[in-house]
Amino acid sequence: MKVGSICLKKLDLQLKNICMCATFDLYDKSILSYSLSNKANTELVLKVLENSYTKEILKNAVLHSDRGAQFTSLQYKETLERLGVTHSMSRV
User: Which residues contact 55 (CB under 8 A, 6 or more apart)?
Assistant: First the structure.
C-alpha cells in the first residue's frame, strides 16, 4: 500500500498570490501531481486528486492531509471514497 500526502500552500509571487496543491509520495518525497490556481478551494484539491488517480498513483493508497476546509469537505471525502483512497488526517 502506498502512503502519500496532499497539501495546499499559498505562494506570494511579487504582486500576485498563487495557490499550489500537490500530492507527495511519503516514501521518497517525490511530487506525484500538482496544480496552480488563484484560489485555494476544493476544486483545486480535487483536480490534483483526480490527476494523481488517473496516473494510478493513488490506487489503494493512504492519503494524509491537514484539517483544512478543502480536505474536510463532503465533496473531497466522497471523491476519496469513490477512488478507493483511505483518508488520514492530522490531529487537532
Answer: 32, 33
Strand partners, 24: 5, 31
How many of the other CB atoms lie within 10 Å of CB of 50?
15
60 phi-psi bin (left φ>0, alpha ψ -120 to 50, beta other): left
Strands, sheet with 16-25, edge to edge from the N-terminal-most edge strand: 31-37, 16-25, 2-13, 61-65, 86-89
Range of the domain at 56: 2-89
pTM for this one? 0.82
pLDDT at 55: 65
The pLDDT, as a whole number, for residue 92 is 65
Matching residue, cell 478507493:
84
The CATH number that applies at residue 42 is 3.30.420.10
Distance CA(8)–CA(45), nearest Å, equals 8
Number of domains the chain contains:
1
Residue at grid coordinates 498570490? 17
